[in-house]
Amino acid sequence: MASAMLSLASASPSASLSLQENLKISWKRGTSSRINFLGSDFSKTKSFTRTSMTVAVKVSRFKDITMAPPDPILGVSEAFKADTHEMKLNLGVGAYRTEDLQPYVLNVVKKAENLMLERGENKEYLPIEGLAAFNKVTAELMFGADNAVIQQQRVATVQGLSGTGSLRLAAALMERYFPGARVLISSPTWGNHKNIFNDARVPWSEYRYYDPKTVGLDFDGMISDIKAAPDGSFVLLHGCAHNPTGIDPTPEQWEKIADVIQERNHIPFFDVAYQGFASGSLDEDASSVRLFAARGMELLVAQSYSKNLGLYAERIGAINVVCASSDAAARVKSQLKRLARPMYSNPPIHGARIVSNVVGNPELFNEWKEEMEMMAGRIKSVRQKLYDSLCAKDKSGKDWSFILKQIGMFSFTGLNITQSENMTNKWHVYMTKDGRISLAGLSSAKCEYLADAIIDSYHNVK
Amino acid sequence: MSMLLRNGCAGRILKSGAVRSMSTSWWKHVEPAPKDPILGVTEAFLADPSPDKVNVGVGAYRDDNGKPVVLECVREAERRIAGNLNMEYLPMGGSIKMVEETLKLAYGENSDLIKEKQIAAVQALSGTGACRLFADFQKRFSPDSQIYIPVPTWANHHNIWRDADVPQNTFHYYHPESRGLDFASMMEDIKNAPNGSFFLLHACAHNPTGVDPTEEQWREISHQFKVKGHFAFFDMAYQGFASGDPERDAKSIRIFLEDGHLIGCAQSYAKNMGLYGQRVGCLSVVCEDEKQAVAVKSQLQQLARPMYSNPPVHGALVVSTVLGDPELKKLWLTEVKGMADRIIGMRSALRENLEKLGSPLSWEHITKQIGMFCYSGMTPEQVDRLTNEFHIYLTRNGRISMAGVTTGNVGFLANAIHEVTKSA
């Protein structure tokens, strides 16, 4: 066989490719495509086929796969880790740090874990919808235990893989039951929102949100774009502490947003990843969602405990769908389960147990509220310190007050891509290219250094 | 427009501030989903008030008292990791240490593929998540391909590849008459599939049948795969549970690797480390070289990011603590063997009981089949009788989870099976 193959090759001097190269080309697609070799129909030559297949098995059908670009957010931390400069500062991912720039495990979490260790609970599969105790407390935290939607059992709650996983379940539900309906997302928004809707095949378009001129909310643009969208669109709203800008609508503005959504028959979809981190109060931060629910609107809410309970890597969150009736909620919940089963079967148990132990235990819950206020308080104080340092050092008269007006973990500095790159390349300050800095990663000790970096990047780099 | 029509009167425009009466809903057209055929069994079991009820439905290991088990090695690992580590996000590819140890289990301690860094591997959400990630990867990078799935298989395999939008085909596997492997038909299907097809194979302890190819049969399958240039994707959810020895249970994979196949593999710690609810597993894809492995890994991460961003840490820490410590690893191996041995013992007991009852049928397959499950051969109607008359819960395809059988209930179970099958 082999000799037949070789003689075929040598018989055609016009074949400029080696045998090996030809075989590699033939396996590019890794499918049952017809193979042409030296002008003859490859597939007809049986003996040829067997021998060449033995060679070809070493060639991967994934040969042509190229390197994916680094994730714009998570990739920042990876780059930061690789940097050896002593002044380096990681203001990339939104992960809370103490004043010593150490990760922080909340005391209530340690207590909850000890309780769990003592109890020695088993690790059996959760039901597809997750831990019942968790689902109960998470919905109550969001809406308030005495809220009508909860009393009337109108909320379909399914435990999800933190905010991302909960958003993805909702997106999959949208794709399946509202094919062709689009989701409106803010410009800008968290980088992964677009990936989620793309991979779930839900079309999206943007509504104006950030106004670079005022470094504030483009409210008229927002209302106008929501109005202009085809009715029955989903509108993705950040419940509080907008990521990446830190700019939230006022209560009056929320009322008007609710008005236009109702007028246009849209469906509100809240992403709440920072409940507690915006104002320091869990209830206050839930007020936008509760405002909409109080109007009797059907809505979706994705929750995450990554930041407010510091449970980042446990991947704990939930998707809630508030429906017109308890019957609708039951049906919707069953279909969310049907989407989750072929994704991961059932969600991870550990984080769910922690949350239900903390939120479900009055003592631990109160302690959590205090720790929440402490974390949010630290961020407010570094905001102030950064603002003070900028004002003291910058003589240009630029108004830096947006830093104080913005809310939550992030500040949208208004730096452009080149300026953000300068922050990293010259000052070893790691941030995302959209100009977002995570104040959770800033210590008061580093505020002056950061101020220097921002002033330099803003004024000296175009 | 269609939204308005679909939602009928939900299109009424309200003055701002007015609370709309919620007589209609966006979700009117959403039907209740059917119960999951496997997980729905446990739900029904839990709802049953009968004191004699038996759950031999889901494949979750039970001790001889019918209780869930947390392995000693796991408890010790948890004591060590409690409180002293933060919960920062894992990298998108998951815990590197956990993945390293996991690859050794599948590919061998001294695997050249590992040394040469030819394997693209990421932590995944147990076996389900690993399969789904691969299915999405297959869809994105081999968009014209289909997946060949054995008949029967774990029900969720169909859901996974369907939701990933990859067309499915089937190949013969189970031979009902002999309650064994339909090897001839299987080989025919492998030969007749177009060259370069993607096949899903159960590495060991086939779910739901418990029927595995012999070593010689695996070699033939591997050879035919070479001839046809097929891609082998192994789902290995029961390594250690088949024979009690994880090395032995990886034999099918090792045969394929020896033959030079570039395989894909889903691994799970749900059963063999009892980490069910922690959702710990691994997806690996063998590549030609390190450069390709780096590229493939980056693409797997790219698929994971919009699904869950990064995988959960707790279970991964448990795994890497256990497997990274020689003493704990030894303990684990002992405990896995213990679980497998108990199941093998229960297989013998069930068969003996049925034979003693004078059953007219052959129950040889109970002891021939391997792993957690016994494909009893009972019909859905017989299964329904078991559930309704005897409060015994199993899936309607007649699959019995031997892990739920105990010395305490094996007699009762045998009696009940005999009752519903004696006139068959």
From TrEMBL, chain A:
Keywords, sorted A to Z: Aminotransferase, Pyridoxal phosphate, Transferase
EC number: 2.6.1.1
Alphabetized InterPro entries for the sequence: Aminotransferase_I/II_large, Asp_trans, NHTrfase_class1_PyrdxlP-BS, PyrdxlP-dep_Trfase, PyrdxlP-dep_Trfase_major, PyrdxlP-dep_Trfase_small
Names of the cofactor(s): pyridoxal 5'-phosphate
Record carries keyword Magnesium: no
Catalysed reaction equations from the record: L-aspartate + 2-oxoglutarate = oxaloacetate + L-glutamate
Presence of the UniProt keyword Transferase in the record: yes
Domain Aminotransferase class I/classII large: 87-454
GO molecular function: L-aspartate:2-oxoglutarate aminotransferase activity
NCBIfam families xrefs: PRK09257.1
Stated family: Belongs to the class-I pyridoxal-phosphate-dependent aminotransferase family.
PANTHER family in alphabetical order: ASPARTATE AMINOTRANSFERASE, ASPARTATE AMINOTRANSFERASE, CYTOPLASMIC
Subunit architecture: Homodimer.
Additional comment: In eukaryotes there are cytoplasmic, mitochondrial and chloroplastic isozymes.
Protein's UniProt name: Aspartate aminotransferase
Organism: Forsythia ovata
Lineage per the UniProt record: Eukaryota, Viridiplantae, Streptophyta, Embryophyta, Tracheophyta
From TrEMBL, chain B:
Reaction it catalyzes: L-aspartate + 2-oxoglutarate = oxaloacetate + L-glutamate
Keywords of the record: Aminotransferase, Pyridoxal phosphate, Transferase
PROSITE patterns noted in UniProt: AA_TRANSFER_CLASS_1
Entry EC number(s): 2.6.1.1
Pfam family, one: Aminotran_1_2
GO molecular function: L-aspartate:2-oxoglutarate aminotransferase activity
Residue ranges annotated for the Aminotransferase class I/classII large domain, each copy included: 52-417
Keyword ATP-binding assigned: no
Alphabetized InterPro entries for the sequence: Aminotransferase_I/II_large, Asp_trans, NHTrfase_class1_PyrdxlP-BS, PyrdxlP-dep_Trfase, PyrdxlP-dep_Trfase_major, PyrdxlP-dep_Trfase_small
Keyword field contains Transferase: yes
Enzyme class, first EC level, given as a word: transferase
Cofactor list: pyridoxal 5'-phosphate
Highest taxon above the source species: Eukaryota
Additional remarks: In eukaryotes there are cytoplasmic, mitochondrial and chloroplastic isozymes.
Subunit structure as annotated in this protein's UniProt entry: Homodimer.
Family, as annotated: Belongs to the class-I pyridoxal-phosphate-dependent aminotransferase family.
Protein name, per record: Aspartate aminotransferase
Native species: Forsythia ovata
Lineage: Eukaryota, Viridiplantae, Streptophyta, Embryophyta, Tracheophyta
